[in-house]
Amino acid sequence: MKFWTILASGFGAGYAPKAPGTFGSLVGLALGAALLYYGHLPLLLGIVVFSVVGVEAIRATGNAAHDPKWIVVDEIAGQMIPLLMLSHVGVMGMVFSFALFRLFDIFKPGPVGWADARHDEYGVMGDDLIAGVMAAVVVALLRLVLPL
């Protein structure tokens, strides 16, 4: 497997026979949790790195126009975004972050759908980054009433 393919597939998670996007999101959740353990700055840097590397990996594989299911680097970057709203790594916060991100990623409301309609590497990455931001807003609101 080529270097860019390994990155674009989320270290192979994108080759899961069922629900590769969910497996990619789980990779993002695990990486994001590990980075959050060390603080918000490492998590933010991880999001930036995976976003930039993701665009290049998608471009390098030549698959931006089709957005094949095996490309999950976008889910990894997007899934880490709502974790920024958590004060610490905790089960309930992780569950809400994961569930909300997947909800926005699957149903593609508003700007998520707009970005998804682009058939280039920025659209492939953009819909998941926007879904991550939308999930982050909801997680921030939930923190007002729940101990996340």
UniProtKB/TrEMBL annotation:
Q: Which SUPFAM superfamilies match?
A: YutG-like
Query: For this UniProt entry, what is the primary localization, expressed as one broad class?
Result: membrane
Q: Which CDD domains match?
A: PgpA
Q: List the Pfam families hit by this protein, alphabetically.
A: PgpA
Which pathway? Phospholipid metabolism; phosphatidylglycerol biosynthesis; phosphatidylglycerol from CDP-diacylglycerol: step 2/2
**TM regions (residue ranges):** 42-62, 83-104, 129-146
**Enzyme class per UniProt:** hydrolase
What are the residue boundaries of the YutG/PgpA domain, all occurrences included? Answer: 6-142
Entry EC no(s): 3.1.3.27
What keywords appear on the UniProt entry?
Answer: Cell inner membrane, Cell membrane, Hydrolase, Lipid degradation, Lipid metabolism, Magnesium, Membrane, Metal-binding, Phospholipid degradation, Phospholipid metabolism, Transmembrane, Transmembrane helix
Which reaction(s) are listed as its catalytic activity? Answer: a 1,2-diacyl-sn-glycero-3-phospho-(1'-sn-glycero-3'-phosphate) + H2O = a 1,2-diacyl-sn-glycero-3-phospho-(1'-sn-glycerol) + phosphate
Name the coenzymes or cofactors required.
Mg(2+)
Q: Where is this chain's protein located in or outside the cell?
A: Cell inner membrane
List the membrane topology term(s).
Answer: Multi-pass membrane protein
Described by its record, this protein's role is as follows: Lipid phosphatase which dephosphorylates phosphatidylglycerophosphate (PGP) to phosphatidylglycerol (PG).
Designated name of the protein: Phosphatidylglycerophosphatase A
